[in-house]
């Protein structure tokens, strides 16, 4: 598309306008179980058959399926018996619940929680704070209190984070050679998918998931198999309770939830607990130094405004926070995917 | 991106997931007046200056501006006084309120009304009906009663439709030579932007906007200048009241609001009123015959589910509806933009 065409007809603006339609079509096909049914059935199905099996209207289902065809999430074949739909390969891998790389849970979190918070983006920008009160009628003073407002919400959030590590976990853990560190704490480790990637990638490591008591209970019940002896748990609030000694601390998507003061406070505490020769691994989505991108990270930084007290930062900003806490020899690795890695040493 | 990369890392799925973030960033920058301020100021401004002038938080505004840079809706320049932001050309033309091609009003309608209806897309697909009740607590029995539930909502809707015709109106009216028809009725002509395009493109034509009484009042007050003598008005409900005789009837984005029965009923009435040798021009977004796209039209058809009693249709489906009403010599012209044209003759 040349720039003259751009100006004569605003293709890009129309595309941005339809962004929420695209998101909701994909989320809804996931939520209703379209991709799961087509995976299980093993053969292409008609719109009517899918509607009956999933208990939906036929008029709604037919349009949903056709929009998924337009998004290349489904394929359609026009046969003598009518249109028959099947999954594309990418849908089988990422949009079915049972796949090891399933993104189903993060999509449900996006669709049912984040989408509604973002309805109040203009208010968030005006006020400079999160929008749980407008979206869900709950106090926004403690963002994690709001995010974990019910067992169901906590489970959705934890499962969602695990989805992300199923596609990004290996890259952030392989960004640096972490094999010298055998005793690792994953602060705010939640559902434990990153811890599991870690013990799988570094067979000599043990990882302790440090998180709020209710999160640890949920992780044990729902996510981390009891036979995984290289993963341990520690219940606590890392701002108010002590942090035990270890060789490496992972802070994965933690600092982005908090303002600079709280980050400094937490990193100082981590530095104090850390064994000499040990270190801290930050896993975050890094902004370019010149504010030009990446777009995903800029959007996530807005999401931090809408949902937390934090923001996304540049590599320089994270390095300064680490150095202010006492860490040195700071190294940065961009993975080319959503999340990057920053390592500081004591 | 090769298909192997696709399967290893679901770039397309991440992009679809972020679609609603992209929409809301653009809508919010419009709503807060960022593009208007940068157009008026005539010089690049800092994030802090913009926040002060627009009465928003600095932390929220900075991130909003940076995300707009990522979307190429703003440009940033890093100077000694810090980052300075300016509009891109496309933003000046399409995202400022004062521009003749402004899309501001349709974006406000999308952002504040359509976005919330779409939160309930899964329910819409399950139930096969619109979601005004869940989104706004109002009865969904009469979609236009719901859409026009307040003067403000009606104004937003009418202004939004006018935005669309400012970029697509000329193409749909020039798709066929309409100069033989001088006496034209625009049924459901709303805010009149298409009527204005029509009298400008066909100087010998007069166009009567036929719409509900309250819509006509609003069109006269807000949109159509009284000195435009080639545009007249007719107050009525085209399903329940009579339709006067004319040479050409325009039904622009009307049939897509209704099911096949109501379309047949309306077209039969139009055929009866139409002068011999006259015709009807349907302006709609046409689906491909093989259900493969266009994506925008598939998405709009889902929107018809969420907001109306209708759907988008293929050229063949519209031709059949026209022929069932008695119209012949049906011709179809795709414009390559959002809306296409179908002409039937009596």
TrEMBL record, chains A, B:
UniProt GO molecular function: acetylserotonin O-methyltransferase activity; protein dimerization activity
Subunit structure: Homodimer.
Domain O-methyltransferase C-terminal: start-end pairs: 118-327
Protein name per UniProt: Acetylserotonin O-methyltransferase
Lineage, highest ranks first: Eukaryota, Metazoa, Chordata, Craniata, Vertebrata
Keyword Flavoprotein: no
Keyword terms of this UniProt record: Melatonin biosynthesis, Methyltransferase, S-adenosyl-L-methionine, Transferase
GO biological process: melatonin biosynthetic process; methylation
Catalytic residues identified in the record: 256 (proton acceptor)
EC number per UniProt: 2.1.1.4
Pathway entry: Aromatic compound metabolism; melatonin biosynthesis; melatonin from serotonin: step 1/2
Function: Catalyzes the transfer of a methyl group onto N-acetylserotonin, producing melatonin (N-acetyl-5-methoxytryptamine).
Database matches in InterPro entries: COMT-like, COMT_C, COMT_dimerisation, SAM-dependent_MTases_sf, WH-like_DNA-bd_sf, WH_DNA-bd_sf
Domain annotation O-methyltransferase dimerisation: ranges: 14-96
Pfam families with a match to the protein in the record: Dimerisation, Methyltransf_2
SUPFAM superfamilies from the UniProt entry: S-adenosyl-L-methionine-dependent methyltransferases, Winged helix' DNA-binding domain
């Amino acid at each position: 598309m040349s720039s003259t065409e751009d100006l004569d007809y605003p293709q890009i603006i129309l595309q941005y306008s339809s962004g929420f339609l695209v998101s909701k079509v994909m989320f809804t096909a996931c939520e209703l179980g379209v991709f799961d049914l087509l995976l299980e059935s093993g053969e292409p199905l008609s719109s009517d058959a899918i509607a009956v099996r999933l208990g939906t209207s036929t008029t709604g289902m037919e349009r949903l399926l056709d929009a998924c065809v337009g998004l290349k999430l489904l394929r359609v074949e026009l046969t003598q018996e009518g249109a028959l739909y099947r999954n594309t390969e990418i849908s089988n891998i990422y949009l079915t619940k049972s796949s090891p790389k399933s993104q189903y849970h993060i999509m449900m979190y996006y669709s049912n929680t984040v989408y509604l918070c973002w309805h109040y983006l203009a208010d968030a920008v005006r006020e400079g704070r999160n929008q749980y009160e407008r979206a869900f009628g709950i106090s926004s003073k403690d963002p994690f209190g709001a995010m974990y407002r019910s067992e169901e919400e906590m489970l959705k959030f934890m499962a969602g984070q695990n989805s992300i590590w199923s596609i990004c976990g290996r890259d952030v853990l392989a960004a640096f050679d972490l094999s010298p560190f055998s005793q690792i704490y994953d602060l705010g480790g939640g559902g434990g998918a990153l811890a599991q990637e870690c013990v799988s990638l570094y067979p000599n490591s043990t990882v302790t998931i440090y998180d709020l008591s209710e999160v640890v209970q949920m992780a044990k019940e729902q996510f981390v198999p009891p036979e995984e002896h290289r993963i341990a748990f520690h219940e606590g609030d890392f701002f108010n309770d002590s942090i035990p000694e270890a060789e490496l601390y992972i802070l994965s998507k933690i600092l982005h939830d908090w303002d600079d003061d709280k980050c400094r406070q937490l990193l100082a505490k981590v530095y104090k607990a850390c064994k000499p020769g040990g270190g801290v691994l930050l896993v975050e989505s890094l902004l370019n130094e010149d504010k030009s991108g990446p777009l995903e990270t800029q959007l996530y930084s807005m999401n931090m405004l809408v949902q937390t007290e934090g923001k996304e930062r540049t590599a320089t900003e994270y390095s300064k926070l680490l150095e202010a806490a006492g860490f040195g020899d700071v190294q940065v690795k961009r993975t080319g995917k959503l999340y990057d890695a920053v390592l500081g040493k004591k």
